[in-house]
Design goal:
By secondary structure, this protein is of the alpha/beta class. It is about 40% helix and about 15% strand. The chain contains 11 helices and 13 strands. A 7-stranded parallel β-sheet has the order 3-2-1-4-5-6-11, sandwiched between helices. A two-stranded parallel ribbon has the order 7-10. About 45% of the residues are buried.
Length: about 325
């Protein structure tokens, strides 16, 4: 098939595009290469993707409606995997407009492109952030999610509602995936695992919010891509989840882990102890995430299963290699 992957220079987009290429699909990747985090890291991901003969890249902002529409008209995509977005909960407090441009206007532009091009299935990234401070655990897609605690979460919930509208009006098959704290090699520098690893190696304190009284359903990147690609092969049909051909799934490990336990995994993988700086809960943060993945398992026969310790070890190995940081000597503390 011919697929469009938006956000191809991003963490999840890079891994998804590479897997699709390895499976023999033709992939067009787009990204605006903004400087929210290291452009150098994004370009390094793209350099690997460009080694694939069946991958092409175009620098393009999904908020630019005419340019995106022309891309859809020119290419004739069979399916679209939409992973481009302005990420980050805390950053949305500082720069709300970029979230409106990328996550709201950009998403409408993408829906319009898929509608007019009659794309067979659009799979898009939502987020566990939509659950807010819900105390009903584990988080289920059947639960009401009407009280977001960050603008980022609100934009992701808006995406889900817009997707339902387009599926209803135009019978466009749409599937949203609520990702739960994705981590692994080539991960984002603004995520806790990356920040902790870098700080410990540089001998700086790590910042632990809410005094460590938080937990997350950490999900390894390979598990996320596996679930995503299985879902994109299963477009929803009218009648499966109501009249419209639309669906929502969680993708998570299905097991919350205390933040302090994650810190210990990083310390073990690095062979170094962290200097811990405890801070209050930050605006927009949630205390716990925990994915109910039963619907995903029933639909695809797949459950994410990578243990946190092994996933962290793989990330640390990549980090050392990418940043040319030597491995510790045997027996080092």
């Amino acid at each position: 098939m011919k697929l469009l992957v938006t956000g191809a220079a991003g963490f999840i987009g890079f891994h998804t595009a590479r897997r699709l290429c390895r499976e023999g699909h033709e992939v067009v990747g787009i990204d605006n290469l903004n400087d929210y985090y290291s452009v150098e890291l994004k370009l390094a991901r793209l350099a690997l993707l460009r080694q694939q003969r069946n991958f092409r890249f175009e620098r393009l902002d999904i908020a630019d409606a005419p340019v995106l529409a022309a891309l859809f008209q020119r290419e004739g995509f069979d399916r679209v995997i939409h992973l481009a977005a302005q990420a980050g909960v805390r950053y949305s407090l500082e720069n709300p407009q970029v979230y409106a441009d990328a996550n709201l206007s950009g998403f409408v532009n993408l829906l319009e492109g898929c509608r007019h091009a009659r794309v067979g299935h659009l799979v898009y990234a939502s987020s566990s952030s939509v659950y807010g401070m819900s105390s009903r655990m584990p988080f289920s897609t059947d639960a009401a999610v009407d009280q977001p605690v960050s603008l980022y979460a609100a934009t992701k919930r808006a995406n889900e509602l817009m997707a339902h509208t387009y599926a209803h009006l135009y019978r466009l098959p749409l599937t949203g995936l609520r990702f739960f704290t994705v981590y692994g090699p080539w991960g984002r520098p603004d995520m806790a695992l990356f920040k902790f690893t870098r700080a410990i190696l540089e001998g700086r304190p790590i910042e632990i919010y809410n005094n460590g009284e938080m937990s997350r359903d950490f999900t390894y990147i390979d598990d996320v891509v596996e679930g995503l690609l299985r879902i994109q092969d299963r477009p929803p049909e009218p009648g499966e989840h109501g009249e419209a051909p639309v669906a929502l799934y969680n993708i998570g490990r299905g097991e919350p882990v205390r933040l302090l336990d994650m810190v210990e995994c990083v310390e073990c993988a690095l062979g170094r102890r962290a200097v811990r700086h405890y801070l209050p809960l930050q605006p927009g943060d949630v205390l716990q995430t925990w994915a109910d993945v039963e619907a995903l398992a029933q639909r695809t026969g797949f459950r994410p299963a990578t243990p946190l310790q092994s996933g962290v070890e793989r990330f640390v190995h990549w980090y050392r290699e990418f940043h040319a940081v030597e491995e510790p000597c045997a027996g080092a503390a």
